[in-house]
Design brief:
By secondary structure, the protein is α/β, with parallel strands linked by helices. Helices cover about 25% and strands about 20% of the residues. The protein folds into two domains: about 5-150 and about 280-329, Alpha-Beta Complex (Quinone Oxidoreductase, Chain A, domain 1); about 155-275, Rossmann fold, CATH 3.40.50.
């Protein structure tokens, strides 16, 4: 990516790029798969400029990565040449601020973002500090495992932060890359899940993954007339209309999780808890990987050639991707 631009204008170029040079604490990973995330699209099209992203140009996007360790710096521990390794959005953190010391390095003010502040996974090779790399579950292919490193950890932390528990009902808006993972974590928490989308294949996937109800956005009110207002609502679609709807339908005193950029219309009389969540910590990531290793969660993916990245991101923009698209070099 040489410059910001609309994905319709093919801003991503498939070019030769210098191989990364390793520091002592870094590993070199030959990439086998990298998920195509909606936030990649937002950054490429300039919607994150106000946050300072991309932090440099040119930059290689992509932040949910699986591959094989090819080289290691001399101080690397816990990895071997040829080992399967994964990389998430959280590329590094300072390790010394109050957030890092409290195990919340996802809030570190000087953290690095894979494919956002440093070169990412739309490539053949990537380097990463070994302390921010993870083993890939052996029971999953590289393509299946890649979404664990963004949708997986993002959904896990978002659901965890809502405090969702047994005997509660959650409405999940947007059954895409993150939403189809949030659905599974909500079921594991014991909740009744109402999946909401406007895409029929996404709703069919939601039922396959265990949703108690899967309804079109326009049919939600009719369902809630029977089930009652939900205890929790999570939002995984960038729509102000959906955010407004979430605040309207959630119970008094209920929790609303905003996993997207939006401004909720707050009514103080309702005592709603409006929450946000950003990616996940290293401990969150390890928990997700343990659950995937045990077969408790699964990803819905389809692989495409890396050279088709512009085309796939355009499909993502138009809502034509089911589950998660994964790019393979």
């Amino acid at each position: 990516m040489q410059k910001i631009g609309a994905i319709e204008n093919n801003p991503l170029q498939f070019i030769d790029y210098p191989d990364p040079v390793l520091a002592d604490d870094e590993i070199l990973v030959r990439i086998r798969a990298c998920g195509a995330c909606h936030s990649n699209l937002h950054m490429i099209e300039g919607e994150y400029v106000f946050t300072g992203l991309p932090a440099k140009l040119p930059i290689i996007p992509g932040h949910e990565i699986t591959g094989v360790v090819e080289k290691m710096g001399k101080s690397v521990q816990g990895f071997e040449i040829g080992q399967r390794a994964g990389i998430q959005v959280l590329y590094n953190a300072c390790g010394n601020c109050e957030h890092c010391l409290n195990g919340r390095e996802n809030l570190c003010m000087t953290q690095g973002g894979t494919g956002e502040t440093v070169d990412g996974g739309y490539a053949e090779l990537i380097k990463v500090p070994f302390a921010h790399a993870y083993p890939v579950p052996e029971n999953m292919s590289f393509e299946e495992a890649a979404p664990l490193f963004c949708p997986g950890v993002t959904a896990y932390r978002a659901v965890k932060r809502t405090g969702l528990s047994f005997d509660q009902t959650v409405v999940i808006f947007g059954i895409g890359g993150v939403g189809h993972m949030a659905l599974q974590f909500a079921k594991l928490a014991g909740a009744q899940v109402i999946a909401v989308d406007v895409n029929k294949p996404a709703l069919a996937m939601a039922k396959e993954l265990g949703a108690d109800y899967a309804v079109h956005f326009d049919e939600l009110d009719n369902l809630l007339a029977d089930t009652g207002r939900p205890d929790v609502v999570t939002i995984h679609v960038p729509s102000q209309m959906v955010v407004d709807k979430a605040i309207k339908i959630v119970k008094r005193g209920g929790n609303v999780m905003l996993a997207t950029l939006a401004s909720p219309p707050i009514n103080f009389n309702e005592e709603h808890n409006v929450l946000t969540s950003v990616i996940g910590t290293r401990n969150d990531m390890r928990t997700v990987l343990r659950m995937a290793t045990k077969g408790r969660i699964k990803t819905k993916t389809k692989a495409y050639p890396l050279k088709d990245a512009n085309e796939i991101l355009l499909k993502l923009k138009h809502g034509e991707i089911l589950g998660r698209a994964v790019l393979t070099p």
